[in-house]
Amino acid sequence: MNAKHNANVWIKTLLATSVAVSSIAQAESRLGSLIEEVKVMAQKKSAAEAVQDVPISITAYSGDKVDAMFAVNLTDIGLNTPNANLTPMATSPGVANFAIRGMGTVGQSIPSADPAVGVVMDGISYGTIYGVVTDLFDLESIEVLRGPQGTLFGRNVTGGAISMRSTRPGDEFEGRLRATVGSHERKDFSVVVSGPLNDNWGAKLAVLSKDHEGYWDNKAIGGKQGAAESLLVRPALTYQGENFDAALIAEYGDMEGDALGTRLFWTADDGYFADPYKDDSTLQGDKGSSDLEWVNLMLETNWELWDGQLTTVLGYRDLEQRVVTDIDGHVDTLFHFADGTGIDQDQLSLEVRWAGSLTDNVSLTAGVYLFEQEYTYAERRLLLDVVDRRGVSTIDHSTAGIFAQSDINLTDSLVLTLGGRFSTETKDAEVGVIGDPNATGNCATQLAPFEVKASLSDCEPAFFDDEKWNNFSPKVGLTWDVNEDIMAFASYSRGFRSGGYNVRFTDLTFGTPDQASAPGPYNEEVVDALEIGVKSTLMDGKAHVNFSLFQNEYDDLQRTVLNTSGGQQILNAATATIQGVEFDAVLMLTDQLVLEGSVGWINAEYDEYDYATARTGKDASAINFNMVPEMTTNAAVTYDMELGDKGALTWRLSYSFVNQTFADDLNTLPVDQYELFDASVVFTNPDENLKVSLFGRNLKDEIYYDFGINVSAIGVRNYYQTPPRTYGLELTYDF
Q1: Which CATH number is 653's domain given?
Q2: pLDDT tens for each residue of 460-511
Q3: What's the total number of domains in the chain?
Q4: Is 630 within 8 Å of 667 (Cβ atoms)?
Q5: SS3 353
Q6: Would you say residue 2 lies in a domain?
Q7: pTM above the 0.90 mark?
Q8: Residue 13 domain flag
Q9: Domain range spanning residue 486?
Q10: What would the pLDDT profile of 529-548 be if each residue is shown by its tens digit?
């Protein structure tokens, strides 16, 4: 009896232990995406590297982590990345208003202003800021590289780069179905199916459909403002041979809906004033509209060659957007982008690079990059209920670059990095004048009533020019493996953003910057960057702690200024020094509890800024950078609760804080600090192929803003709306 009893006890103990071990393993699996070392291609080597092994400041997100955050677009990624402000532009949906470490195209929706923060999707570097803020879906990883990337990414990234990679077909057939319903009549559905076709070929099809009703009450014309719907289709075909692999990825996207919401809170003529932080309704007389459509095609090939890998990336993108926007936010037509406003852009790029080992102690990545794009931008403005002004411009832009970066092992623990890139950029410009007094036909300035056709095809350019810019961007770095867990690094690098032309040119009078805008050209922007940092992986991989210090010095800084007539002008207006500190950490306290946190502090100071000094009477050092918060903070806690054989509940609460800033260069329009709380709870069944999620974003229903305008020419001040509290229920099934 005793032997039998003891045997039963042992069996029960073993079973209980087995269940406990299984539960711990499942919990680690569920929370693994929060602590795992994401593989990244930031250094474009022959194989992906763990992010903790890369000696640059980079924040990487796996696709699973993006899902766990319920991130909608890159703006949400920016809230979780130190010193990154990845907000959209107000005047047109989908347009990036991105800044990293204080540098970006902040406040500019001018298509000809080259992105200071480069965005790369599956190897395609987007040529404009248009069509960038789209739905996050079907992603393997997102890499946010902070600071200028002049050597390997090169193309005009004086602020940083964001590289996204979609999923590839795996060795087994698999799929995912996801459906979401939520507030504001949100309805999403997506499906991803992928797997092998045979021993060499694989295929994938991913489809996403989303739509929601408006977010904000329109008290002028009734109803809601901010409705949107989108469709994304991404097929892929892959080939895997013995020494060769290839991937062909296509993407079709369509985003339609209202223009963005505008919160008017002050007018000069009728004396209207309202507290914009007490009420998020809108007084827009026109909801506006946006129709953004694009096609991407990417072919990547990899050959094993000479103890390394030869990679080619051929990319094509075609983009069209049409917008109607009530910019002033007033019930009357003070300043609208009217029917006919939009951009047509197409681009073609080719990168060929080899990455591998030259000797046991020397590795090399070297290649060439070719890029060309052409875009035509048309703008039709309705002003003060009486004037209809039009203009059309075309820019033909080509880039060629040659680059190399080498890691040299000086000792077993010390690595010297040497790199450089020579780039040449050429732009041919045909710039029209928005409101050319000499124009005829559909391009002539018209007075109300506006009965002329919206087509701007008859518009003729008024200014013709071409310019070429050459630049050499070096990099020198030193990496020290302190021990197996800690790495320290230091680097000097240079980045540049080419000069260009202003396709929002509004006056033929080439006067002072305060009297008229000008078509250009303006000169290139150059940054010299110093950085030191430490990356550590502690507690047997259960903790990642990273820290960095940086100083960036900018010369011929490109600023888009708004003159007293309401015209936008791009000037090489300033020199500046930007310094900052960044800290981020992830800690798995137990197998069921993960803590995450990051802090970014930045001091962005103008050394010279003659235009702003003349307008404000302030010394340059007393003028704040617009839309550059001094501090950004993020924290999150995730807890996994086992339910025995019923499954598990995963709870997550996250917090983001963004410091006060200003919406304009002259610091006349402050933007208050804000904090956001998000939360979710996810039920996972025992087989871990079914998830039911309840999530909420901006739980405090905080009224906050990312951008605004103060236009004395039309006598208005307003902010541009951000989403209120949203929530939803999501069902995910993996098969």
Answers
A1: 2.40.170.20
A2: 888 899 999 999 999 999 999 999 999 999 999 999 999 999 998 886 544 4
A3: 1
A4: no
A5: strand
A6: no
A7: yes
A8: no
A9: 24-734
A10: 999 999 999 999 999 999 99
